[in-house]
Amino acid sequence: MPRALTIAGSDSGGGAGIQADLKTFQMLGVFGMSALTAVTAQNTMGVQGIHDLPPDFVRQQIDSVASDIGIDAAKTGMLSQPEIIEAVVAAMKEHHIEKLVVDPVMVAKGGARLLVPAAERVLREQLLPIAYVVTPNIPEAEALLLRRIETVDDMRDAAKRICDMGAQRVIIKGGHLPGGSSIDILYDGTNVDELHADRIDTKNTHGTGCTFSSALTAWLARGVEFTMAVGRAKQFITAAIAGGISLGHGHGPTNHWALMEQQDTVTKQIWGHMDGELHEVNGNQ
Ligand SMILES: Nc1ncnc2c1ncn2[C@@H]1O[C@H](COP(=O)(O)OP(=O)(O)OP(=O)(O)O)[C@@H](O)[C@H]1O
Ligand SMILES: Cc1ncc(CO)c(N)n1
Which of 39, 96, 168, 234 is the most buried (most CB within 10 A)? Predict the structure, then answer.
């Protein structure tokens, strides 16, 4: 069974962070494990409190699962403090984690900081160079590069510049760009690609970034090639946003079960991919 680890914060509201990641892993048939970095008191209205965990204890959680269960792919989300980033980097190196998806979470939708400003430099200098892929949204890419991103051309340029900082691959998520479609830019160190989806008119976008990066991690854990894994992660997040549940009074969560509920082409495509892979595995035995 493919195994994926999320190293991230807990969202008590269940739509983002560790909770979104584990729900997504489960939906995509991957065994999910977690190393908590922080616990937040959070709901659809915002973040009411943050309690960071000690860096050594973050490290201990990673060591526990790596030394026993094993990790096919890992992702990072909210890392909160510079010392936590340092602990995570040391653990990733020691356990030789190659498929590392870095979601450089900095600020929650309502504006609360999930990474102290002093940690941005450590993230840039220590975490990016060990990332298999980094997935900033537009404000995060702006913070990493200290420059504005206003157009799709700016996003393409930013993807190359972030790759120059050491990440092997970059996806700039366009959820924050105004316009009728939701464009993500994908750079694999050689080619730039665009991923398009119609923009869904909804306020229920809490945790979209976490859900997208955990779907990508799940497909990488399953051994799917990078570009295909990104395409399937995009299908998953688009279905989850379109899945339309409305909870709470603010930015509600996406629907991680959307694929189970809608027996449409997206469901058939995604479950079909998995079915195909299972047949391949069985056929090779
Ligand atoms: N309204 C929307 N309609 C369709 N796709 C969207 C919409 N909003 C975001 N997306 C897609 O969701 C994915 C996540 O992008 P986004 O920019 O929202 O991440 P994020 O800001 O990191 O999310 P969060 O901080 O809430 O976890 C991207 O693939 C993006 O294109
Ligand atoms: C714990 C946590 N991680 C990430 C995000 C970003 O969506 C959030 N709101 N909360």
Answer: 234
Write out the chain's pLDDT in tens, 285 residues: 999 999 999 999 999 999 999 999 999 999 999 999 999 999 999 999 999 999 999 999 999 999 999 999 999 999 999 999 999 999 999 999 999 999 999 988 888 899 998 999 999 999 999 999 999 999 999 999 999 999 999 999 999 999 999 999 999 999 888 777 789 999 999 999 999 888 898 999 999 999 999 999 999 999 999 999 999 999 999 999 998 789 999 999 999 988 777 655 565 666 666 655 555 444 433
Task: Clarify whether residues 183 and 245 are in a common domain.
Answer: yes
Angle at which helix 226-242 crosses helix 265-284, to 10 degrees, equals 140
The range of the structural domain enclosing residue 232 comes to 3-254
| pTM value surpassing 0.80 | yes
Does 203 share its domain with 265?
A: no
Q: Could you tell me if the CB of 253 is within 6 A of ligand 2?
A: no
CATH number of the domain at 13, please: 3.40.1190.20
- Return the ligand number nearest the Cα of 77: 2
Q: Is the CB of 52 under 6 A from ligand 2?
A: no
Mapped onto helix, strand or coil, the DSSP state of residue 46 is strand
d(CA 268, CA 270): 6
For the chain, the domain total comes to 2
Quote the longest CA-to-CA distance of the chain. 52
